[in-house]
Structure formats: C-alpha cells, structure tokens
C-alpha cells in the first residue's frame, strides 16, 4: 500500500545521488552560491499519505504559459505567466530542522544496522546545517524477551555517532508495533512476553465492534490493570523510560538528547487505531470505533451508570464500517445521532479516555525525564473535515465536530504536563486533496490552522512533521508558510520541524539541493549563504 514518492526525471541526464562513499566532497561545499530557481518542467509530485489522502499526479512546475493570438487570430508565441514571488524568509525566526532516521536503523537484535553508511549520510545532513535527527526507540526490540531486561546496545552506538557530529537527538519512546501501515517497510512487533499475555488475554488490545483485535499497541483500558507480570501498563512504560534515562545519562547531561517524544498510541500518536489497513480500511473511509475490549467496555458501563442511563453502556450501532462515508451512516450524517444526547455522552467518554491516557503517561514521563523537554504527537485526520460531524476525527478520538473545538482539551492537557504538541500534515494543500479525492471533503489547511491556534492559545510549543515524503519546492513552501505565519502579530512560529525521512530519494542531487535550501530558509538565513554542492558529492 506504500506509494512511491519518486519523481519523473527532471532532465535527460541520469539521476545522480549523494554518495555514501564521497563524504569528503559533501563536507566541502562550494560557498556563497545560491540555489537556482525551480526549473520549468513537468514533475511527478506525490500527495498520498503516511496518513492517507492523495495520489501522485503530474504538475507543471515553474512559470505556467499561455498563448497570444495575432490580429488574424493565429497563435504566434507562448508567453510565460509570471508566478507570485516567493516569500523572503531572511531574518525570520530560527526553526530547528531534524530528519527522521529509517525505521530499520536498529536491527531486531538491537544492533546498529549499517554504521558506516549511516555515518556518511549523517555527515551529508550535517553539511546542509541540519540540527539533528529523530529515532524511534522500539519497545519491541529493547525489552523483547523478558520484563525489565533491556538491551540498549545499538542505540548507544548510534548516539555516539550522532554526538561525534555535534548533532542533536529527538528520541521517540515507541510503545507500538511497526508494520501494517502505509509507508512501513519493516516489521517490529510488541515484546514477545507481551504478545504471550495477549494470546491468553486478547482484551489487552484495542478491539472493534466485530471483535477484531489490533495488536499495534495496548488498549488504554489496561493502563491501570495489573496484568503484565505484576505491573500495570503505565508502570511498564515508566520503567522503560526510566531505564532509558539512566542508561543514557551522559547524553542528557550534555544536551545531545534535546527532546523526548512520548509514544501514546499507534504510530506513537495520541489517537485510537481507528483506520488500520490490516482490517481492510482504505482512504477516505471514516474508520471504526475501537472501544470493545473488556476493559474499555467496563469503563463505558461505569460512565453510563454514573450518568444514570445504563442503557447507554454500548457503542453506536449505526456508525457504519471502516470504509463508510459519513452520509451513509445514521450516526454521522447531517443531523445524525452524533449530536443526540446519547451521541454526545458517548463521544465525550471516548475522547476523555484518550485525554486521560495522555495525561497519565506524560505525567510519568515528566518523572523519568525531569528537566528534558517532552512532547506528544497528534495525527492530522483531515478527511471529512468539511462535513458537520468530522467523522474520521471522531473515530480517532478527537471530539471535533463543527460545533465544538476538539483540540483545545488536548492542548490543555499538554499544558498541564508541560509538553509540546507535535502535529503532522503541514505540507498538504487543500486544493490538492480536492483534486485527487473530492469525495473526501478534506481540508488539511483548515485542520492545521485550528490545531496550531489551539496550541498557541494554550501557550504551549508546537512542532511539526510532514505526513508524506516531500521533495518539491511547492511542498517545502507550504511547510514554511505554516512554520512562520505571515504577519502574525505575536510572531508565533513552530518550535521545531522534523522531516520524514532519510531515504535514497532524499539523497538524489536535485532533491537534496531543494532540501538544503529549505533548511536554510527555516533557519532564517540569507540565500547568499546557501551552499551549492561540489560535483564530487554525487555519483551517477
């Protein structure tokens, strides 16, 4: 289901790559040369999601052209239509740029997969003035075989390489499975001993209305259940984080580790796994509620009893299936049950479970990482945003219909825990989504603006990531616009940006040149300081 982000060739010459074996050239840029303007070519631009929502299409890049007739009505020549000038980001706020490392940079036995190649690639990134890298610390690798038996070997070797290059580290506490989602090219399950518990008690996993289990992460219903060899789920998470903090104390004390991203759900995001590809979901389906394991059903029953309406202790029976559209369901259609007394009760409970889970785990993260910035990822569920119910968001746990701000309570919880909000899909354009999937009624730009303002109104830092591989100038410009809003009276901007991800496509000469230009503009530097690569850095 992964969708290629490769571009069509931009010239007749063969594609050239930054060579992992030519890093001497990469470290010796030709100085004081600005990047050339974007070429006028037909390029292949990818717009399909890591969160889904788009397809690759051809687009004219550079000056569009129109033809002028002469006095006889004959076409004589084509005149380029001038583009809107690019915004000048010189002197704007410095926004640090990090790059996500490949998912499989650490192998199943916690060994660094290819240290020599990685070192060369990191030197190239350093030459482009990247501030640091992001890496997942996989629970399923580190604590794979027995409770509280941690193997950090490969991460220590990786961190030493990063430190030697004077780069920073964003480290993700990844308490979820890797594999089964769009863009995943490796499989890293939950720890073996946890899956053994799951064989006997499958209610530790999120469950849909048909009883299908999702082993991508643990249900939030087990947060306080002492069923993990004498520990609760949140105690398991805390012990893991505390072990990491002790093991890598020197990297914390010297500031090499600049931030901890606390995994709170699937893909490390604070959301329900409401749209799993493994269960047949396809974009732009609304997904399904994930509250039918024994523990969450018990929580729902307790909430219904407290409200005095025990018959509300059930999930909606008219909310459709994974690939339904809102108007096809009685629950999400305009005027549907989502806005009834029962619907508001259920959605309040469902979203509060999400917020309570984030609150519990982040409070323990603060104990484990005292003095180090922490953050939480929130996914950009932008499809069906232009409908009244916002069905896909409701399924994911974001109670954000058109008459309610569902992100303000999440921002308030993060404010309470002193955590930053890390949001996705800042590179997506609403117009592109409308062209590719008009039936999805998506609005990524509207969603981004709402979430950024919810966080800024709560006075918490906001960082971001791109949802898709991004290699074109148009995508980078969209990120820049969101990172540094024009004419903001308070001068608000992103606290950091993390690029998804280090790959062979990024190392292509044209793509990396655009990326380095983007980094310089994120830093607010003058274009004349942008280096151009020595040809020794590339190989055919």
From TrEMBL:
Pfam families xrefs: Glyco_hydro_14 (PF01373)
InterPro entries xref list: GH, Glyco_hydro_14, Glyco_hydro_14_CS, Glyco_hydro_14B_pln
Gene Ontology biological process terms, A to Z: polysaccharide catabolic process
Name of the molecule in the record: Beta-amylase
Homology family: Belongs to the glycosyl hydrolase 14 family.
Binding-site positions, substrate: 136, 176, 184, 377, 382, 424, 466-467, 501
Annotated active site: 269, 465
Top-level division of the source organism's lineage: Eukaryota
Annotated EC: 3.2.1.2
One term of GO molecular function: beta-amylase activity
Reaction(s) catalysed (UniProt annotation): Hydrolysis of (1->4)-alpha-D-glucosidic linkages in polysaccharides so as to remove successive maltose units from the non-reducing ends of the chains
Keyword annotations from UniProtKB, A to Z: Carbohydrate metabolism, Glycosidase, Hydrolase, Polysaccharide degradation
Lineage: Eukaryota, Viridiplantae, Streptophyta, Embryophyta, Tracheophyta
């Amino acid at each position: 289901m992964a969708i290629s982000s490769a571009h069509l060739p931009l010239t007749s010459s063969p594609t050239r790559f930054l060579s992992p074996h030519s890093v001497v050239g990469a470290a010796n840029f030709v100085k004081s040369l600005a990047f050339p303007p974007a070429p006028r070519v037909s390029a292949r631009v990818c717009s399909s999601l890591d969160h889904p929502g788009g397809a690759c299409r051809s687009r004219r890049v550079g000056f569009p052209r129109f033809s002028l007739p002469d006095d006889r009505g004959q076409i004589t020549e084509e005149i380029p239509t001038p583009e809107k000038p690019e915004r000048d980001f010189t002197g704007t706020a410095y926004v640090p740029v990090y790059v996500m490392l490949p998912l499989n940079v650490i192998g199943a036995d916690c060994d660094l997969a290819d240290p020599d190649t990685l070192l060369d690639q990191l030197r190239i990134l350093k030459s482009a003035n990247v501030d640091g890298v992001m890496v997942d610390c996989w629970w399923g690798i580190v604590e794979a075989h027995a409770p509280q038996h941690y193997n950090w070997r490969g991460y220590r070797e990786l961190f030493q390489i990063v430190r030697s290059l004077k780069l920073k580290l964003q480290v993700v506490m990844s308490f979820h499975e890797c594999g089964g989602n769009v863009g995943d090219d490796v499989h890293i399950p939950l720890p073996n001993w946890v899956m053994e518990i799951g064989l006997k008690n499958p209610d530790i996993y999120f469950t849909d209305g048909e009883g299908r289990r999702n082993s991508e992460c643990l249900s939030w219903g087990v947060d306080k259940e002492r069923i993990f060899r004498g520990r609760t789920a949140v105690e398991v998470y805390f012990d893991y984080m505390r072990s990491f903090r002790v093991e890598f104390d020197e990297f914390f004390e010297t500031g090499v580790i600049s931030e901890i991203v606390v995994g709170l759900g699937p893909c490390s995001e604070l959301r329900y796994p409401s749209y799993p590809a493994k269960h047949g979901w396809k974009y732009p389906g609304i997904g399904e509620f994930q509250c039918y394991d024994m523990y969450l059903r018990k929580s729902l029953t307790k909430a219904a009893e407290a409200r005095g309406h025990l018959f509300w202790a059930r999930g909606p029976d008219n909310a459709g299936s994974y690939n339904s559209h809102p108007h096809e369901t009685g629950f999400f259609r305009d005027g549907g049950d989502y806005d009834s007394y029962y619907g508001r009760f259920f959605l309040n409970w469902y979203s509060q479970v999400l917020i309570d889970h984030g609150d519990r785990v982040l409070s323990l993260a603060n104990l484990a990482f005292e003095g180090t910035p922490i953050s939480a990822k929130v996914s950009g569920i932008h499809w069906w945003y232009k409908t009244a119910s916002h069905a896909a968001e409701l399924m994911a746990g974001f109670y954000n219909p058109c008459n309610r701000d569902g992100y303000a309570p999440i921002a308030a919880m993060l404010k309470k825990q002193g955590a930053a909000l890390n949001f996705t899909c800042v590179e997506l354009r609403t117009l592109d989504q409308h062209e590719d999937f008009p039936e999805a009624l998506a609005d990524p730009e509207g969603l981004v603006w709402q979430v950024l303002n919810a966080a800024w109104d709560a006075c918490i830092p906001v960082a971001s990531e791109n949802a898709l591989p991004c290699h074109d100038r148009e995508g980078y410009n969209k990120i820049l616009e969101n990172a540094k809003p024009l004419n903001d009276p308070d001068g608000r901007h992103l606290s950091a940006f993390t690029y998804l991800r280090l790959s062979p496509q990024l190392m292509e000469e044209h793509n990396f040149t655009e990326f380095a230009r983007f980094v310089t503009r994120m830093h607010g530097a003058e274009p004349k300081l942008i280096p151009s690569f020595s040809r020794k850095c590339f190989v055919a």
